[in-house]
Amino acid sequence: MLKRIEITNFKNFNEKFIFDLSDTNNFEFNKECIQNGIINTGLIYGHNGCGKSNLGLAIFDLVSHLTDKNFAHKKYNNYLNANNSDTQATFKFTFKFDEDIVEYQYTKKDYETLVNEQVTINGNIYININKDKSSIFTTSAKGAESLNKDIQDSNISIISYISKNTILEKNIENNVFKDFIEFVNNMLLYKDIDDNFYIGFKQGEARHSNYANYIVNQNYLKDFESFLNKAEIKCKLISRKVDENHQLFFKFENKEIEFFSIASSGTRALAMFYVWQKVMENNNCQFVFIDEFDAYYHHNLSEIIVEKLKAMTDTQVILTTHNTSNISNDILRPDCYFIMDDKKITSLKDRTNKELREAHNIEKMYRAGSFE
Asked: What are the beta bridge partners of residue 128?
């Protein structure tokens, strides 16, 4: 699980910005939101332009050099902070797997150009390189002794290089390293409708034809229809094959109309969520970041979506929103709600001296200024 990230000089994060998912409390409700001492389902609230989307991009920056998964390169233009004179961005990730801790720190000039990398496992340096000083890396990984340690002017990640070119011995450090690699390969960020993009997890474009093909090929058409009906979108669906692709249609009494041609923004967002949820459930997704997850949802539907994500207990979930109505102890708990501005991000529990209880209406408290 992702425990903590520190970001400096990346996009709007000029000075060190810390997002700590291990700073929890002992609330006796919604306990499923915490696993192994780390927030498993969290929601970030913030005004437009505060950097919520950039936080997601920062977390998923490592996908560009550690995996071969889908990556939204254009989102990483203007990589460095415009007010910072430093020529490198710095990232430090902390992961926790059972009781083992992996720290991964690196610097980049842009999303393609790594300068240094260091992996520490349980306090011991496992991999290290600083290209400003040398092209030779060091590693304590058992099984990597015969690798050429001089990468010269290659921009390859040492982590990726070792992972792809070595059969590592079975020991604690190597097993934890493999857990780290598996986690990163099973991370997903996506955003609904307008941007319609995703990072990580798999390869290929996010297109409406892909959603329709997936639903039909997996025999989910009736289940998807039921999902929409439960979301109070009363409809009957059929599918037809058009130019080698499946398409979905609303079936009316006297006419059939292609699904995405008349579906509202909210209905299209639901279709996207439905497909991604199924893909995540069937493919061991370990971390998902959904930006503006509720942009097209009624409040009651937003709550249904969060409950569905909470039920995916093997997936760590981070959501962003502009809607304060999602801040409720009925959905999550105060240490799982974060308020973000361009300087810091803090949970509700750290923004008040009051003892917060399950019965509190924390949205009403927020609107009244209790968390300022």
From this structure: 118, 138
Distance of CA 371 to the CA centre of its chain: 26
| Residue 71 near residue 206, CB atoms below 8 Å | no
Q: How many CB atoms lie within 10 A of CB 275?
A: 20
pLDDT in tens, 41-69: 999 998 888 899 999 999 999 999 999 99
Measured CA angle at 45 (ends 28, 17), to 5 deg: 95
**18 C-beta neighbours (distance < 10 Å), count:** 15
Global pTM value: 0.93
**Do the beta carbons of residue 42 and residue 55 sit within 8 Å?**
no
DSSP string across 194-237: TT-EEEESS-S---HHHHHHHHHHTT-HHHHHHHHHHTT----E
- In angstroms, the CA 367 to CA 246 distance is 47
Residues 308-322, mean pLDDT to the nearest whole number: 93
Residue 85's identity, in one-letter code, is S
pLDDT of residue 364 exceeding 60, the answer is: yes
CA distance 161 to 166: 8
* Chain segment 136-151, per-residue pLDDT in tens: 999 999 999 999 999 9
Which tokens sit at 275? Answer: 């497909």
In the chain, which segments carry CATH 3.40.50.300? 2-202+286-367
For 260-314, the DSSP string reads HHH--HHHHHHHHHHHHHHHHHHTT--EEEEETTTTT--HHHHHHHHHHHHT-TT
Q: Which tens digits make up the pLDDT trace of 234-244?
A: 999 999 988 88
Mean local confidence (pLDDT), 199-219:
80
For 2-202+286-367, CATH gives: 3.40.50.300
Q: Is 281 exposed, middle or buried (0-12, 13-18, 19+ CB in 10 A)?
A: middle
Which pLDDT does position 108 carry in this prediction? Answer: 96
